[in-house]
Write a sequence for this structure.
């Protein structure tokens, strides 16, 4: 009886084993970071997510085929930081990632043989795990559960992205090389035109094997030609670099604080950048024949000029291209190099819609209109060379231009004195307006008037010209210096009538602004004490800072890192519109608005393109121009806290995938009556320069 029961148990166990061997289970529906032997990751149903949710591994599709890749889980665009089968695209979506009983990690698909990721070495007790570093590792374990060996890792097989902790260099024992290779195009992740390597002392970017750019030596935690990587203003000192050189390996790696998202991407156009941060190397930077730090010296062909280049244009196509290159391994950057070195080539673009292959033209093109049926976007040569048949035309033009220039020089010389006097008078009027406001504010409520040429204001306060102070102190000479404090220097002086004075000159290095200066004047002029010298007057002279004054400085005397962002926003609007903010006044009924408010009104109405300079006609990209206007409006917002940082602005301009928030009302958006625009004229002439004048005697 007992023997019969044992036999039944054995038969039942054998049947269950047969059933298990007959089915390959998929990964549990619950989120996991590991594939175990016999399990599979299906194309569209399952994903691997690292333990803390930092990275995700799964299948994705492009125009060139389907692939297995890794991306940051929080990245809405799912930009891939690693691709398993980058040079072996899968047709269709019938694919799975499988770890078989022998420890082979492979992609199975209906279109051909399995794509094995690791070696054929048998490892029966193994698992594949996606780590929070972004490293996908295959490990073998002992029977007691302890780690026996790391069999394979995605970090040892990098694609176009360097993650924190990943190595660039070489393993001297195994000969394994760690380097990045750009994608051929945005739709083809196969190895492309550019590679990034570590030569032991610096990063080296190569184009088809030839040196294209180098970072310079890594020294004192910074690279010679990209020192801003360690800038506190731009990158907040987030990077820590590590360089190792010993008998086993030579490599470079970097790290960032926990929680910081970082990935260095090598682009198909030869750029290098960290996502959401300013670029290290611009796309196509070293192909411009300009002296950029780190770029290898390149000499153009004899038929080309350093000022020649290619511009993307919509042109009318008539006829076929002069030649084509059908190789799917060629990217757009390869097409440019081939056209550049062919003296007969005048334009190029990609042969296939996925951005591979090349087409070349040797004809001239006409600019296409929006409704032209035969238009196509090409990269057209913009040449600065003068042909032999037209050189005499340019000689005549140059002669006419020279005559015109000579006439203009004469006119400028005769009118320069008049202009300089008018300009000086205008600057004086602006400076006097600030001082007039000082003496007629609420703190000087008993002031009746401040008149020209030294007449008294509130509390017998006199307004001195800066030239008179310079003369009294012998141009602030060191012999006249009495002392120095945290806010500036004090000089002795003598007025023309013989009165001795002490002059305090506010230092530019102090934190005291116009508001603090005004408050000091208001306080001292009211105080009467035997130990305080009597305040005779003051003088304000501009700080000679070129730019547009942000509202927080104009209203409160506060200057911050966002102040220059405001100036950049106004400048960007000026470039787009072709108009100066200083001289722009758009009449809105009985009111006048400035350039920023006018741009904001157009943006609200969905008619932003009305701001664009008509001289540009159709030579710009509508999408880019709308983005420029949007970014400018973000920079000129009234609240400094709402404005982006300068590094964020650069990222917005260089990366069109960065989303843009809606802007708020611009600064200085209060509408002024048109009749008030000339209200500053006729102000009494005073001075400027943060200077106070006191008698040297006590009261």
């Amino acid at each position: 009886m007992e023997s019969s029961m044992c036999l039944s148990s054995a038969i039942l166990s054998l049947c269950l084993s047969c059933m298990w061997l007959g089915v390959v289970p998929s990964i549990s529906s619950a989120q996991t970071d590991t594939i175990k032997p016999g399990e599979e990751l299906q194309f569209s149903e399952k994903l691997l997510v690292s333990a803390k949710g930092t990275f995700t591994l799964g299948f994705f599709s492009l125009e060139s085929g389907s692939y297995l890749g890794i991306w940051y889980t929080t990245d809405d665009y799912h930009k891939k930081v690693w691709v398993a089968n980058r040079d072996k695209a899968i047709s269709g979506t019938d694919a799975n990632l499988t770890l078989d009983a022998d420890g082979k990690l492979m992609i199975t698909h209906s279109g051909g043989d399995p794509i094995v990721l690791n070696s054929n070495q048998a490892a029966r007790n193994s698992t594949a795990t996606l780590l929070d570093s972004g490293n996908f590792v295959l490990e073998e374990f002992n029977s007691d559960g302890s780690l026996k060996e790391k069999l394979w890792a995605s970090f040892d097989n990098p694609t176009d992205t360097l993650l924190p902790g990943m190595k660039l260099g070489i393993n001297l024992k195994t000969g394994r090389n760690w380097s990045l290779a750009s994608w051929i195009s945005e739709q083809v992740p196969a190895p492309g035109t550019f590679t990034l390597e570590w030569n032991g002392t610096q990063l080296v970017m190569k184009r088809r094997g030839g040196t294209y750019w180098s970072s310079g030596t890594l020294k004192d935690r910074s690279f010679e030609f990209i020192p801003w990587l360690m800038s506190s203003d731009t990158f907040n000192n987030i990077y820590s670099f590590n360089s190792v050189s010993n008998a086993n390996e030579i490599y470079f790696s970097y790290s960032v604080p926990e929680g910081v998202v970082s990935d260095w991407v090598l682009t198909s156009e030869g750029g290098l950048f960290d996502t959401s941060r300013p670029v290290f190397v611009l796309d196509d930077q070293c192909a411009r024949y300009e002296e950029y730090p780190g770029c290898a010296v390149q000499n153009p062909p004899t038929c080309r000029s350093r000022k020649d280049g290619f511009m993307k244009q919509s042109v009318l196509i008539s006829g076929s291209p002069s030649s084509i290159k059908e190789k799917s391994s060629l990217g757009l950057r390869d097409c440019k190099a081939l056209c550049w070195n062919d003296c007969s080539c005048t334009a190029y673009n990609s042969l296939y819609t996925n951005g591979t292959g090349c087409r070349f033209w040797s004809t001239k093109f006409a600019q296409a209109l929006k409704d032209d049926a035969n238009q196509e976007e090409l990269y057209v040569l913009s040449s600065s060379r003068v042909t032999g048949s037209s050189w005499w035309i340019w000689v005549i033009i140059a002669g006419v231009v020279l005559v015109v220039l000579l006439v203009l020089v004469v006119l400028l010389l005769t009118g320069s004195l008049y202009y300089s006097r008018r300009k000086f008078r205008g600057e004086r009027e602006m400076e006097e307006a600030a001082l007039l406001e000082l003496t007629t504010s609420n703190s000087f409520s008993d002031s009746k008037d401040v008149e020209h040429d030294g007449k008294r204001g509130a509390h017998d306060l006199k307004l001195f010209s800066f030239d008179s102070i310079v003369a009294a102190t012998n141009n602030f000479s060191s012999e006249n210096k009495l002392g120095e404090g945290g806010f500036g220097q004090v000089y002795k002086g003598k007025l023309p009538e013989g009165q001795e004075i002490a002059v305090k000159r506010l230092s530019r290095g102090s934190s005291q602004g116009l508001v603090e200066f005004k408050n000091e004047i208001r306080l001292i002029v009211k105080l009467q004490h035997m130990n305080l010298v009597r305040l005779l007057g003051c003088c304000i002279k501009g700080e000679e800072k070129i730019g547009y004054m942000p509202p927080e400085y104009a209203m409160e005397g506060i200057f911050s890192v966002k102040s220059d962002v405001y100036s950049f926003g106004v400048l960007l609007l000026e470039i787009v519109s072709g108009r100066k903010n200083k001289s722009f006044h758009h009449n809105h009924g009985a009111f006048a608005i400035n350039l920023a408010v006018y741009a904001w009104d157009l943006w609200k109405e969905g008619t932003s393109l009305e701001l664009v300079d008509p001289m540009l006609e159709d030579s710009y990209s509508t999408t880019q121009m709308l983005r420029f206007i949007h970014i400018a409006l973000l920079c000129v917002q009234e609240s400094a806290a709402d404005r982006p940082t300068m590094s964020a602005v650069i990222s917005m301009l260089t990366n069109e995938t960065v989303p843009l928030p809606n802007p708020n009302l611009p600064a200085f958006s209060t509408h002024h009556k048109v009749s008030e625009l000339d209200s500053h004229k006729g102000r009494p002439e005073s001075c400027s320069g943060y200077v106070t004048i006191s008698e040297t005697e006590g009261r």
Remarks:
- The first helix runs from residue 2 to 21.
